[in-house]
Amino acid sequence: MLNKIGFWAFIIGLILCIIGGFVSSWSANTAIIVILVILGLIVGLLNITGKEITLFLVATIALIVTGRVFSSITVLGIGKFLDQMLGLVATLMAPAAVVVAIKALWAVGKPGESI
Fold first, then answer.
1. Are residues 64 and 94 in contact, defined by beta-carbon separation less than 8 angstroms?
2. I want to staple 39 with a disulfide (CB 3.0 to 4.6 A). Which of 9, 28, 33, 100 is the partner?
3. Do 36 and 48 touch, CB atoms closer than 8 A?
4. At 111, phi and psi to the nearest 5?
């Protein structure tokens, strides 16, 4: 049951990020940001297993590092939409990454236990 909640939190978060890419006011909307952060925390707590930690953290770092790479694409404003979407995805995934990183550190810090 919890896996389904985490899965749906991820899907809803991605849908909000995609819609937010086209609605420019969403990128600065505090309510949307708070919702994405909460959904990200749920994803980090419920979705990511021990085997997925490394892949998840690398993927999240890649998303966050890419930042505003699409801003130079000016055709039809596509770059702006992609940048807003990517920024919102980073907002969704950053809290999940923090939770997963803490889980990983906790597992490493426990003697005799593995992830």
1. yes
2. 9
3. no
4. -70, 135
Q: How does pLDDT run across 62-115, given as a tens digit for each residue? A: 988 887 788 788 788 788 888 889 989 999 999 999 999 999 998 888 876 555
* pLDDT 10s digits, 17-55: 999 888 877 767 889 999 999 999 999 999 888 889 999
CA angle at 13 for the pair 54 and 20, rounded to the nearest 5°: 120
Name the residue with tokens 């590092």.
65
Dihedral (C-alpha) 42, 44, 46, 52: value to the nearest 10 degrees?
160
CA gap 5, 35 in Å, rounded: 15
Angle at 106 between CA 63 and CA 108, to 5 degrees: 90
What are the helix (H) ranges across the chain?
A: 2-22, 30-46, 53-66, 78-109
Determine contact, residues 34/50, Cβ cutoff 8 Å. Answer: no
